[in-house]
Amino acid sequence: MRKFSAVAALSIVLAACGLSQPTSTADGLLAMPNLVGWTDVVTEDINVPEGVAFNPIDVNGTRVMEISAVPETAQSAQKTGGVSVRMSDDFENRVSGNQLLVTVRAYSTQPEARLGVAYSTNEVGNSGWRVFPVTDQPADYQFVYSVAPKRAGLGDFLGFRSYGEQAIRVVGFQVTVLPGAAAAPLPRTEPPPSALRTTQGE
Fold first, then answer.
1. Chain-wide mean pLDDT for the chain?
2. CA–CA distances in Å: residue 155 to residues 80, 110, 129, 186
3. DSSP strand E in 12-167: where?
4. CA distance 133 to 115
5. Structural element, H or E, at residue 90
6. Per-residue pLDDT band at 188 (split at 50, 70, 90)
7. Which residues of 27-63 are buried (b: 16+ CB within 10 A; e: fewer)?
8. Do 148 and 119 meet the contact criterion of CB atoms below 8 Å apart?
9. Exposed/middle/buried for 110, CB within 10 Å: 0-12, 13-18, 19+?
10. Pick the residue with more confidence: 47 or 183?
């Protein structure tokens, strides 16, 4: 059993209660009561492609992962060409045919850095890279994705990527199931930038 599967299950309950989004304020952005932190993810569930840099950094006692050197052509399908985390089998079953809210808390110490995030079913489509310009302070970046019903169930992955020469620091993440939402039969693979939003400042 994957270490963070219980946290993911808790996210489903929070979503049903209307509490899916973590507070995005200046204080406490390294504290993650409703997010999955890197200490909650077991090593074998993390995929790092050859040549991609993935380094743990301690920031005020919180383990943050710095990601860089992701190729421009990195795919958003399968395990993705960025750093990815495999969801638990139980969570894959729960999200099949439903709509997800993906939240990633991230920042960068470099100007004009961008974060890419993708949810991949490794079988029936993926969200494409959702691209967010990030600031030098941790903030929550979100998108909604409709997951097609699974077939054989080959594993779901949440991928993260950097762009260009910049490094991205990912603090934590959360994937919640939105209640009462049906999945689109043909999910988009490359959504337009206008479909993206961040909770920073909301």
1. 79
2. 12, 33, 18, 18
3. 36-37, 46-47, 53-59, 62-68, 83-86, 98-107, 114-120, 130-133, 139-146, 157-161
4. 6
5. helix 89-95
6. very low
7. eebbebebbbbbebbeeebebebeebebeeeeeeebb
8. no
9. middle
10. 47
The answer to whether 124 touches 184, Cβ cutoff 8 Å, is no
Pairing status of strand 62-68 against strand 139-146: unpaired
Average pLDDT of the segment spanning 45-66: 95
User: Under 8 Å CB-to-CB from 30, ≥6 apart: which residues?
Assistant: 59, 60, 61, 62, 64, 138, 171
Reported as a pLDDT band with limits 50, 70 and 90, residue 31 is low
The answer to whether the CB of 2 falls within 8 A of the CB of 88 is yes
Q: What is the pTM of this model?
A: 0.76
The CB density around residue 132, as the number of other CB atoms within 10 Å, is: 22
Query: How many residues are given for the chain?
Result: 202
Compute how many other C-beta atoms are within 10 angstroms of the C-beta atom of residue 13: 12
CA atoms 9, 14, 17, 21: torsion sign: negative
Confidence of residue 124 (pLDDT cuts 50, 70, 90): confident
pLDDT at 3 over 80: no
Tokens of 18: 């209307």
